[in-house]
Design a protein that fits this description.
The protein is an all-alpha fold and 139 residues long. It has one domain. Helix content is 87%, strand content 0%. α1 runs antiparallel to α2, α1 runs antiparallel to α4 and α2 packs antiparallel against α3. It is elongated and about 50 Å long. The two termini are 25 Å apart.
């Protein structure tokens, strides 16, 4: 599998967690108790974070010989910290029982997640381009 395939696979595995979060946000005032809602949100945000972290590890590993590696690590780590903070905010809104805040924070978490996948995918494209250029220069 290529790096792009690996990142796409992590993204694919992330999709059910994001869908679950949207369902939970829509049903924040439903029959589910607050403790159960918080647990389900923790599981779903944890799943998203796990896949984002795994994709980040794949990207960083693929760039092991790249001079930009340390910059990429700092950049992706900062984005991941922001995503973790957003996950904490979602969980806090659920624990407080604040449905409007939960929806707003889930929207932000979803947006940050999509941005993370976009950035990781761009590194896949960059990595492919660099390898193609290296291969062509050897001919």
């Amino acid at each position: 599998m290529t790096l792009a395939d690996d990142v796409r696979e992590h993204h694919r595995r992330c999709a059910p967690h994001l869908a679950r979060l949207r369902i939970l946000a829509a049903d924040a005032h439903g029959a589910r108790g607050a403790a159960e809602l918080v647990r389900e949100i923790e599981r779903a945000t944890g799943g998203v974070l796990s896949e984002a972290e795994a994709a980040q590890r794949d990207v960083v590993t693929a760039l092991r010989d790249d001079e930009r590696r340390s910059t990429v690590i700092r950049f992706l780590s900062a984005r991941l910290i922001r995503l973790r903070t957003a996950a904490d905010d979602v969980q806090a809104a659920a624990a407080e029982g604040d449905a409007p805040a939960l929806r707003r924070r889930l929207w932000l978490f979803n947006s940050l997640t999509q941005a993370m996948w976009t950035v990781q995918a761009s590194f896949c494209a960059t990595s492919r381009t660099l390898r193609a250029m290296e291969h062509a220069s050897r001919r």
